[in-house]
Amino acid sequence: MTKFQATLKSVKKHKVPDWFHDAKFGIFIHWGLYSIPAFAPSNKGENLKILAKEGWTAYYAHNPYAEWYLNSMKITDSPTQKYHFKSYGKDFSYEDFAPIFNEAIQDWDPEEWADLFKQMGAKYVVLVTKHLDGFLMWPSKYSNPKKKTYCANRDIVGELTKAVRERGMKMGLYYSSGLDSTFVNLEIKDVVDEFGKAPNSPEYIEMIDSHWKELIDVYKPSILWNDIGYPKDANLYELFAYYYNKVPDGVVNDRWMQVSNILRRLATTKIGRIIICWYVKRMFLTKGIVSPTPPHCDFTTPEYSSYSKIVDKKWETTRGLGTSFGLNRSEKAENYLTVEELVRLFVDVVSKNGNLLLNLGSEANGTIPEVQKIRVLGLGKWLETNGQAVFGTRRWIRAEGKTTEGIEIRFTQKANKLFVFLLDTPKGSAITINSLKLLKKSKVKWLGCDGLIDWIQKGDDLTINVPKTLSKSPVYTLTITPKPPN
């Protein structure tokens, strides 16, 4: 077994394990003090439009992420500040939510959650252990020197990890290393604030290093899911080597960027701030919310965005069912992805070498809203019939195709099978797939239907019969054995 050293050269030798390639589908859980107000402006699809028209301050003031409640409530006249003053009063601090949350979590049942995630078809779970508010979801031996009792009074991390693993799923842990409001006064209004206010003191570095190593030692997470960067003076490769040596088949995400002194100095100048804000705004508006790739990571994490083609490096798109990760009661059912949209998104991601990490936002007492359950259980129901075409597969030589009728198609492969996904309902008694040439001995079957299906090769195009018994589905799957050569 490889013994990793605390150098970039050494940790880059780590290979993404097969389990992460095979898993495809994970559940993300954002649950914390922000689950009590559970508020953010409900502006489906509007946040990037706000950024384009009104700039960064308006973007952060109208942040649709409820888990950013603490920051949003500090921005003068923001919708969240107005909501907070009206609901709780000007003298009610964010920290005052802590005793309310600790009382509410006594009703939480980790077994119920784990059963639900298993029924949804998830292969792994990622839990937020600390967000930017600094509140811990486990009883750490290394208390926050700024707020020594600022943590949950149950071992949320341990209880959920045990329940998840007992059902055969992997467990990952999220931790916000880049921002912590207990060490800095948050009021982030642009991207320069986001990294410029990141704590970097020896005291903070010692705390987060102790927290990460404690999480690794005690819970042995299969994923280290960091967020919002990492202190520039911390020894990141020492942490990676420590983790890989303890959990050889673990993986780390891409959100560990350490901002250079040059960029920090540039950000302190007026022109530098303008340039950085302009560049990141342009990137968000053209590519979506993507993190700069650090020197080492096992997978990348586009947020509320995806790739338009196959990406060779393993990746994982992450998003909520609506526009928030933490529960946002302002969102209505129509703000969430439908079952059809969710299944089609999932298939598209998998066809391009990605995983889907789908977030569920819980009430403070651990209740996951029914509307969220319905959507993800719909995906789980689809997976009961079609899971063999997703789990354990790999991307094919191309991800996309189309029928002559205009139906979008995606592909995956496993062993000697090719799986073909139709992202809409066939209208007639046959479909013709453009540019798909089978071997003469190939056998074709619709998943969910008994028996083989007749097919005809017409040049480079493939015509396949559609059985009358084909049940209504968000996505229809064909299996072709053996798979074509191209």
Key features of this structure:
globular; single chain; alpha/beta; seven-stranded parallel β-sheet; five-stranded antiparallel β-sheet
Q: What does this 3D model show about the protein?
A:
The protein is 33% helix and 16% strand. The protein has 16 helices and 15 strands. The two termini are 37 Å apart. The mean pLDDT is 95.
Condensed summary:
Helices cover 33% and strands 16% of the residues.
Q: What general form does the structure show?
A: globular
**Which residues form runs of ≥5 with pLDDT under 50?**
none
End-to-end separation in angstroms reads: 37 Å
What is the strand tally?
A: 15
- Please identify the structural class as seen in this structure: alpha/beta
Outline the biggest β-sheet.
7 strands, parallel
Quaternary organization: single chain
Strand order, main sheet: write it out: 5-4-3-2-1-7-6
Overall radius of gyration: 24 Å
Mean pLDDT: 95
Give the amount of beta strand, in percent: 15-25%
What portion of residues is helical? 25-40%
Number of DSSP helical runs: 16
Topology diagram in text:
Layout: H1 8-11, H2 18-23, E1 25-30, H3 47-54, H4 56-61, H5 69-72, H6 79-88, H7 97-104, H8 110-120, E2 124-130, H9 156-166, E3 170-176, H10 191-196, H11 202-219, E4 223-227, H12 236-246, E5 251-252, H13 261-267, H14 270-287, E6 315-320, H15 339-351, E7 354-361, H16 370-386, E8 400-402, E9 408-414, E10 417-422, E11 430-433, E12 443-446, E13 455-458, E14 461-465, E15 476-481
Parallel strand pairs: 1-2, 1-7, 2-3, 3-4, 4-5, 6-7
Antiparallel strand pairs: 8-9, 9-10, 10-15, 11-14, 12-15, 13-14
Helix pairs in contact: 8-9, 11-12, 15-16
